[in-house]
Amino acid sequence: MTPDDIAARMDGRLQDGGAFLPSPAVQNHAAFLARLPDGALVCAWFGGSLEGKSDISVHASLLDEGSDTWGPAAKLTDLPDRSEQNPVIFVTPEGEILLFNTAQPAGNQDESRVWMRHLHREGDRLVAGEGQPTDLPPGTFIRAAPCLRDDGAWMLPLFLCNPRDGQRWTGAHDTAAVGISTDNGASWSVTEVPDSLGAVHMTPVDLGDAQMAAFYRRRQSDFVHRSESTDGGRSWSAPDPTDVPNNNSSICVAHLGNGKLAMVCNPVSAATSQARRASLYDELGEDDDRPDASGGCKPIWGVERAPMALCISDDGGRSFPVRHVVEDGPGTCLSNNSLDGKNKELSYPALLPRADGGLDIAYTYHRRAIKHVRLSADDMRRIAG
Of 195, 249, 271, 351, which has the fewest CB atoms closer than 10 Å, so is most exposed? Predict the structure, then answer.
């Protein structure tokens, strides 16, 4: 489809198991799914003209249970001088709805701050209260949902875009960590994941009995990595590779409740592609004469972001032998432009198990739209074998 074809379908109607969410923005990326206390499904993402531009803001849409149409997109953030990205919605045990997101100047992820604000529902949309930056250090990024530790502390998965004095961020020094709050987000401490250079987008999954596994995107574009915690998330092992390739693009993992884990991702890597681009933000035209950060790992950008696949594990995420293609395409991502038709990525997925045994998935479609796909319980039984 052309960008105009996609725009014509962005009406939110769920037809044949899929929908393109409504949005006023020409670029829409980084979907996140959560269930609200009233049962509605919420999808949040960032939208604007181009990732890294100051007009990038967080948007969200609601799908009530039993409805076949997503509601209008509501803009939840609007800082005038920062690109507001990677929304995460957290429903607290008390039923409060919180939005966390990053906010950075241009392509400088090492200057990002994590913001937090309360959300509430008014009619067919979410409304945001006044936001405040958290006390997490500059350069902190997020992508996965917070979870609760066994003592009630909040655990927010982080990746640290560690600043290098006088040098431009490239991702070469990014590492993984967990933010811990014992006062409902008023303050945070940071626990780093050892030997995690290049491991980002940490996604923890509770395996029961204080056992947890976490999964990582890799800047090196090799494999999805996995680490373990045996003390309920207080400490973590160093990440090790799984059998799923990774293209330096986002992943999402969830427990299906039947002993199986589900992961959505693009199971391709630099080993199978020659596609390369200079950096994530090479189209911004920034007036920045600093040299690229030296040392660290060697990030690889530009590997195709397709197919969009659902992978299933029955061994706690050590391996994912079942790989179901949700949607396929060229996956071309050498440009972030949403209007010239060159970007063909199917990327940055979110997934959320349903109470009926089905699964909701949302992902970026050609940087033009957010696409929602619903798999039924029968679909899941067939896919998982």
Answer: 271
